[in-house]
Design brief:
five-stranded antiparallel β-sheet; four-stranded parallel β-sheet; Dna Ligase, domain 1; alpha+beta; 3 domains; 13 strands; Rossmann fold
Length: 348
């Protein structure tokens, strides 16, 4: 088809089959770029038009100069309309490709708000969103001032790693400096923030044209950090809609997405309810579907498959579909297929 939309999907981990399937079933061409070590995973190849490999082993960085050169060759005969990242580690790759080939979507400035934990905190704080007291780890004098003014314990977090990977809880200035010896020259890739005990919540959203058209709120029973450091099994559950917690998290999530410049994507955002004050505080966000089977839990609770609906909204936005506005009070403002109920996604 002459006007067929082409998606380029970036996946350095095995995930996204449901997104790929929904894109193809929406009439799009689907190109997928994966790490070579994932070649034998059960990709839904019947729905992939072109599958490209990057010579990279597990946890190995892609050589983006090679990837750009390869995509330049592909684009000689193929127009790429949309580039989508399936995982945290793919967000930066997708942004660099969009910037280089001038393809619409999240660029290298905005992507930092969804990948760099230090950039997240600075952006949120500048936008009036509550965050734990934090500091970069660049300047010794600033670190001293932080430690003298913010009560321990603190957590030292990697700026670019996902989930609870690499997080270290420290209880004193001496313990902090001992940890700096471990970090060595990599210290600048970490931040420090105050440990705030409390219940941790997550908002799993779909944004369309800058608005959240669907959000599910959940509460961790055992957080990723607790499991990573203390063992056990990760657990979470959905929060009943229209409760006090649900409304507060959704309101704060809208503020975060607006502040960070989110337009069209799935997102997974975490907040903590301070044990002492009861206030909700922003922790971090990612422009992806939540992992650890959160997508499956959301589908079981609401009948909404986040991967599929993310693909639908991306396909429709790329086609510049005229989206109908429903005013009967039965649906939200945006129905992805321009017809109430046509997508099977209705929340009222």
């Amino acid at each position: 088809m002459k006007d067929q939309i082409t998606f380029l999907i970036i996946a350095s981990e095995f995930k996204g089959n449901e997104f790929i399937k929904a894109c193809k079933e929406a009439g799009c061409r689907v190109f997928v770029v994966i790490s070579k070590f994932l070649e034998n995973k059960p990709w839904i190849r019947s729905h992939i038009d072109e599958l490209f490999f990057v010579e990279a082993e597990k946890d190995q960085q892609w050589n983006m100069e090679d990837v750009i050169a390869g995509m330049a060759h592909v684009m000689r005969k193929n127009k790429i309309d949309r580039i989508v990242a399936m995982d945290d580690f793919d967000v930066e790759k997708a942004a660099e490709l969009r910037e280089h080939f001038r393809i619409p979507g999240m660029g290298q400035t905005t992507f930092r708000h969804f990948r760099d934990k230090l950039a997240m905190r600075i952006q949120a704080q500048d936008g009036g969103i509550p965050v734990p007291a934090f500091s970069g780890l660049f300047n010794d004098q600033a670190i001293e001032a932080y430690c003298d003014s913010v009560e321990a314990p603190w957590v030292v977090k990697p700026r670019f790693k996902a989930s609870a990977t690499g997080i270290k809880k420290v209880h004193s200035k001496q313990e902090l400096y001992e940890h700096f010896e471990v970090l060595g020259e990599d210290r600048h890739n970490y931040l420090i923030e105050q440990f705030r005990p409390g219940h941790v919540y997550h908002a799993d959203s779909l944004s369309f044209r800058g608005k959240q058209v669907f959000t599910s709120v959940g509460q961790y029973l055992d957080t990723p950090m607790e499991v990573a450091h203390g063992g056990g099994i990760f657990r979470t559950h959905t929060i009943k809609p229209n409760t006090k917690e649900d409304k507060a998290i959704k309101k704060l999530n809208v503020a975060v997405m607006d502040c960070f410049g989110m337009q069209d994507s799935a997102s997974h955002t975490e907040f903590i309810q301070d044990k002492e004050t009861g206030d909700f505080v922003f922790l971090e966000t990612a422009s992806r579907v939540g992992g650890a089977h959160i997508a499956e839990m959301t589908e079981a609770a609401y009948g909404v498959n986040l991967w599929e609906e993310w693909a639908k909204l991306d396909c429709n936005e790329t086609r510049k579909v005229q989206v109908a506005k429903i005013n009967q009070g039965l649906c939200r403002d945006y129905c992805f297929l321009g017809e109430c109920g046509a997508s099977g996604l209705c929340w009222f």
